[in-house]
Amino acid sequence: MSKKSALVTGASRGIGRGIAIELAKAGYRVAINYAGNLDAANEALGLVKAAGGDGFIVQGDVAVAEDRVRLLSETLKNFGRLDLLVNNAGVGPKVRADLLEAAEDSFDRLFSINLKGPYFLTQMVAKQFLKQSLDTSGFRGRIVNITSISAYTASINRGDYCMVKAGLTMMTKLFAERLANDAINVYEVRPGVIATDMTGGVKEKYDKLIIHDERGITPIRRWGKPEDVALAVRAIAEDRFPFTTGSAFDVDGGFHLHRL
Ligand code: NAP
Description:
Layout: E1 5-8, H1 14-25, E2 29-34, H2 38-50, E3 54-59, H3 65-79, E4 84-87, H4 104-131, E5 141-146, H5 159-179, E6 184-191, H6 197-200, H7 203-212, H8 226-237, E7 248-251
Parallel strand pairs: 1-2, 1-4, 2-3, 4-5, 5-6, 6-7
The structure holds NADP nicotinamide-adenine-dinucleotide phosphate.
The site of NADP nicotinamide-adenine-dinucleotide phosphate has 31 residues, from helix 1, strand 2 and helix 6.
């Protein structure tokens, strides 16, 4: 049986890199997308190969239409077929500004990279999936959107980030409904606080909130790791949820629980 293939956006570092490695372990060939960090992308490719997988790196800004076209065309050129899209690439605001002060350029940047990019990449990939025949296990393709606890948690110093993540939750439902009859399932994976470059600048704050405070914001009192998120994506990639679509998987140490 030929190997399945995946395109993971923002796979050079952090959660995306973890996903690429875990997919390699599951036997996938992986297109490792990155924005500008060539060294990190090459390192990720080395780790994918060390995990027994194969793949290639592809530069592209998901916010840019021509780049999205290139991501898909390079993937098809290398693999001949695409089975899984993971919309992982995302950025936080450069400045955490109060809701009453937040700037329009930050809003535009976050909407372009974190929501418009995944939306139109998914649209293009969905059309590609529809051209492909069913694979031997009976599916045409799978789509995973990496959102965040920010999809439902109000942080008034990064409203733009919260809104785009909430938008991705709705995007998951929309594509799930649209594609369900075509053997294409769509999922949301919702990480909590994960140790990556993105959270490097707020380490002390979250050490306190998760570990040092008396109760802790997460019942499981540790930082999440990229592998924690990657294992959830791998389970989807291995098609462990064939009768599930449009759903969100919380990978957050229990952050989402309402507690008394
Ligand atoms: P990260 O460590 O900052 O890594 C970001 C990755 O995205 C890098 O590979 C980067 O590429 C790539 N990227 C950035 N802008 C891009 C663009 N315009 N086009 C294509 N790729 C781009 O971030 P992370 O913490 O792993 O976060 C990954 C995803 O998980 C994001 O969607 C984030 O919102 C979400 N998330 C993170 C956390 C957390 O606690 N860390 C929690 C919940 C959700 P380069 O290396 O080339 O810069």
